[in-house]
User: What shape does this take?
Amino acid sequence: MNRGLTHVIYRQEGDVARLTLNRPERHNALVPELLDDLKEALTQCRREQPAALLIDAAGKSFSTGGDVAGFYNTPRHEREAYASRVVGTLNEVILQLLTLPVPTLTAVHGMVTGGSLGLVLASDIVVASPRASFAPWYTVVGYSPDGGWTALMPDRIGRARALDVQLTNRTISQRDALDWGLAQYDAPAGEELARALSIANGLTKKQPGSVVRTLRLNRPDVDRVAATLERERQQFLEQIVTDEADLGMATFLGRTA
Assistant: This one.
């Protein structure tokens, strides 16, 4: 059931809640309205407490991160406030996921770039199709890392590897994601959602108290993550109003700075 949300769809399918990013015409890029819908959907999920939550996305991409056109089209004197809302709300979403008292699974079928990686990093189980890919784009577009690239990614794939990926803008393939621990399960193209649903339904048969305590003991320390996410936000706000950010965004969008 879509509960009045515009850019995401939230509904319960048996004991599993499903949350779908639903801005396919813009590759599910993160804008304030979509992030607000994510917060609302996760609040509903916390209230209803299903046995598991599954996140997926409509369209060709999972999510291409912050909407570059949204940042670029915002006048520079207003851009810091706009960026603070986007990155700040994304951080709230990540922390909501990390404290949700149910296991979270994410089915990735296409590109994941920039801050949208935070939705993957904050998930407990990730299923990736052969078309799944993960890339930062920060040093190309002229941004500073957000979405947990420094708060969560080093714990997943190692600090040196995470830094290399961010500096060189290296794309992480499905195979790399599986080998490095960014994803745990693969699935044939078009079957990643079914695989994730199968795993989620299996979790509904586990003892709920045991599941909750297992999550508490294995998830990253929320206070530490929150502090690093705040550092990411502050650095992002400083970088987004620089000349090189204007140039990087203009080049990325094919415009004249």
